[in-house]
Amino acid sequence: MSVAALASPTPLPDQPPVPAPARLRVLVVDDHADIREPLAHWLQRQDFDVATAADARQMRHLLRHQPFDVIVLDIMLPDEDGLSLCREVAATLGTPVILLTARATPPERVTGLEAGADDYVVKPFDPAELAARIRTVRRREARAPRNAGAPAPGSRVSFDGWLFDMQRRELRDPQGKLVLLSDMEHQLLCALVAHPHQVLTRDRLLDLMHGDDAGVFDRAVDTQISRLRRKLELDPRRPRLIKTARSNGYLFVAQVQALAS
């Protein structure tokens, strides 16, 4: 190759522009304008697309007209309890919810997580931490793995004589009796029946259950396993269906069969 060729390299063909990543759409629901509005402005400066609502009525109106990637929801609202709203979102939309509240004790935080929340932030909080949690919750939602051989979410399955309808959130024992499940018990059982005969660590269960507060959730997973065993097992102290994998997590050993809808 000549010196001239080196001095005048062939120009590279035009490359298509790389599209900018989509801005995360966040709905902030808080009745205190001195929290809601500054937080919205701060998040917008961090490249989020933000809408706000002061109460449950405004929140439902916005959700009817546009989708959101994450909802930041205050528990204490003037017209409705934020926990009931969280349960409604989890059951109908599945949009990740971060609860925003002044309640800081572990039992209160577990109550919020059991209502279907993906994370829990205590007031007063650092906006940078909230922004990081929003991104983390969205990443976890986007990467939630699917097992090709597992029952599809929302399907009906049977195991050990039990019938479980994930879409209707109905669990019936071998005698046909309806067994009530909390929101977290339902999420946990969905994760277990979708991954039978696999050791699921607590962290893996957190991912499958769309949880994010590791400190509280580690304890909550063990608590919910115990509660679920009391409902599924003849002798919860000697479980046959949900086994403990020492130092690893839990193993669902039942044969799971997908049923026609």
Structural class: alpha/beta
Shape: elongated
Largest sheet composition? 5 strands, parallel
**The CATH H-level homologous superfamily of the largest domain:** Response regulator
> How many β strands by DSSP?
13
- Separate helix tally: 9
The CATH topology of the largest domain is what?
A: Rossmann fold
Q: Strand content of the residues, in percent?
A: 15-25%
The CATH class of the largest domain is Alpha Beta
Bin the helical content: 25-40%
Structure explained in plain terms:
It comes from Xenophilus arseniciresistens. Keywords: Cytoplasm, DNA-binding, Phosphoprotein, Transcription, Transcription regulation, Two-component regulatory system. The modification 4-aspartylphosphate is found at residue 74. Residues 154-254 bind DNA. This protein has two domains: 25-143, Rossmann fold (3-Layer(aba) Sandwich); 156-259, Arc Repressor Mutant, subunit A (Orthogonal Bundle), CATH 1.10.10.10. The protein is built from nine helices and 13 strands. The strands form three sheets. It has a five-stranded parallel sheet with strand order 2-1-3-4-5, with helices on both faces. It has helices at residues 3-7, 33-45, 56-65, 82-92, 106-114, 127-143, 183-194, 202-208, 214-232, and strands spanning 25-29, 49-53, 70-74, 97-101, 119-122, 156-159, 162-165, 170-172, 178-179, 199-201, 242-245, 249-252, 256-259. 39% of the residues lie in helices and 20% in strands. The N and C termini lie far apart (69 Å).
